[in-house]
Amino acid sequence: MNMNKEYLKKTAVFRGMTDEELDAALSALRASVKEYEKDQVILHAGTPTDMMGLVLEGSVRIESNDMWGNRSIFSHVEKGQVFAETYALVPDEALLVDAVANQDCRILMLRIGFLSEEKQDTALWRLKLMSNMLAVSVRKNLVLSGRSFHTSPKTIRGRVMAYLSSMSLQKESDEFDIPFDRQQLADYLNVDRTALSKELGRMRKEGLIDARKNHFRLRREKGYPL
Amino acid sequence: MNMNKEYLKKTAVFRGMTDEELDAALSALRASVKEYEKDQVILHAGTPTDMMGLVLEGSVRIESNDMWGNRSIFSHVEKGQVFAETYALVPDEALLVDAVANQDCRILMLRIGFLSEEKQDTALWRLKLMSNMLAVSVRKNLVLSGRSFHTSPKTIRGRVMAYLSSMSLQKESDEFDIPFDRQQLADYLNVDRTALSKELGRMRKEGLIDARKNHFRLRREKGYPL
DNA sequence: GTAAGTATGTGGTTATAACCACATTTTGAG
DNA sequence: CTCAAAATGTGGTTATAACCACATACTTAC
After folding, report:
1. In the predicted model, is pLDDT for residue B221 greater than 70?
2. pLDDT tens, position by position, B88-99
3. Residue B34: strand pairing partners
4. Closest nt by CA–C1' to B182
5. Between the CA of B70 and the C1' of D3, what is the distance in angstroms?
6. CATH fold of B5-150, please?
7. pLDDT top residue among A223 and B37
8. Orientation of helix A156-171 relative to helix A193-205, angle to 10°
9. Which fold has domain B153-222?
10. Fold match between A5-150 and A153-222?
11. Which ranges in A82-180 belong to alpha helices (H)?
12. Residue in A127, A140, A154 nearest the CB of B127
C-alpha cells in the first residue's frame, strides 16, 4: 500500500499512535489509496458514505452545486487533512456536498463509520482514534464558522476583507497565497466573479491591497481594519 | 444541585451512562447550574473558555456582533443541546461569538476542556463522554453546514425557501414554528429585516406561504420546489 | 513563437437588497 | 380597557451586486 506511515503518524487523525496501533487502525479502517485527477468528483452529494478521505497529495474542495448550476464552495482541504468525516460519522446522513479534487490527488480512503457504533471496544488504537477524531471534528467546526464570518458582511468588500484578514492572521503575514482562483474565491464568498474582480480592482486602486493571481498583500498602513 | 439526572441521561452528551458514571462525569466536569435572563450574554466573544453549556430550560442563540453593530446569528440551541463545546475543546481558541439567552434560561455549565488533554485515562465514563462528544460535534457540524446552505442563495427569496424547506423536512410537516422572530430570522439569513418582511409579503401574496409571527406553512401545491 | 484556450478584468444595464421613514399590528403592564 | 412599547409591514430612494458582453492577460500545447 503506497502510503508513508511516518507521515500518517504526524496527521491529526493518527497522531500519538505507535506503529502497531497505526497498523491496527489502518486495517480496521480498510484503508486504501485512491487517485483522482483535477476536478474529478471524489464523493458525490446525495450518496450516503461511511468513508472519509485523508489528503495525501494535492488538495480537495468541498462544494455544493444546486440545480441551476450555482456553485458554493464550503471549504478547502489541504494535504494531511480529512474531509467528509462528518457524514461518515452521522449514520444515515447522505452527503449534502461534493468533494472534488482541486488538483491531481492521492487520497487515503478510510471507513470510519464504525467509530460511531455503540460497542465499547477499549483497544488503545480505537481510543486514540476517537480522541483524535474529536479534535479533528471541533477544528472543522472552526473552519465552518470561519466561512460564516467571511460571508456575513453584506458588501463584497466586507467579505473580501474578512477573508483576507483571517488568512493573514492564519499565515501570520501580510503577504500570502490563497488556495482559490478568482472564480473559486467568488464561490467561496458567495458573490459574482466579475463583481469580485471589479471590487478587487477598486481596492487595488485605493492602495488597500496588492492582488496578483492568488497572491495577496494587505497594505494595512492604508487603513485596513482588524 | 438543581438538575434532573434522569433527564441528563437522555441528552446526547450523557447518553448511555449509568448513574455512577454520570455522577463521576458531572463531578469531573465541575457541573454547575446557572440562570440567565432573556438577552443576557452567557459567554462573551473574545474570552477563552474551557466550559460548554447544556441548555436545561429555555434556549440560546449563538451570534456575532461586529463593531458597527451588525448582528449575525449562527445558530439556535434548544433544550437538551449544548453550545460552545468547540471552543471549550480547542485549547487557546478564544470565543469568536456570543452565546446569548434567547429566553430566561437554566444552563448546566460544564468544564469539558480536560477532554482534549493528552493523558489516556480509560475510565468508562470518560470514554462514553468522549464518544458522545464526538457525536455531538459532528452533529453541530451539520447544523453549521445547514446555515451555509440557507445563506448561499443570492436572493432573499432563495434564502427563505432554503431555510423553510429545511425546517419543513426537519419537522416533517408543511406547518411549523421557527425559533426566530423577524429580526432574528433576518440576522440568521444575513439580510435586512425590512427587506425580509417585504419578501415574505410578496410570497404570501403569491400564495407560496402562510406566515404569521413565527408560524409558517408551506403551500407546495403553489409550486414550492424541493 | 503562435494559436487556442483559460483566467481575469472592465464597462454598461438591470435587478435587487439596503436603507430610511413611517404606518400598522401585536404585546404587555397597569 | 388603555396606553406604551415592541414587533412587523410597506412605500420610496439609493447603493450595490448580478448579469451580460467583451477586452485583456496569462498559460499551455504545438
Report:
1. no
2. 999 889 999 999
3. B107
4. D8
5. 32
6. Jelly Rolls (2.60.120)
7. B37
8. 70
9. Arc Repressor Mutant, subunit A (1.10.10)
10. no
11. 85-89, 124-151, 156-171
12. A127
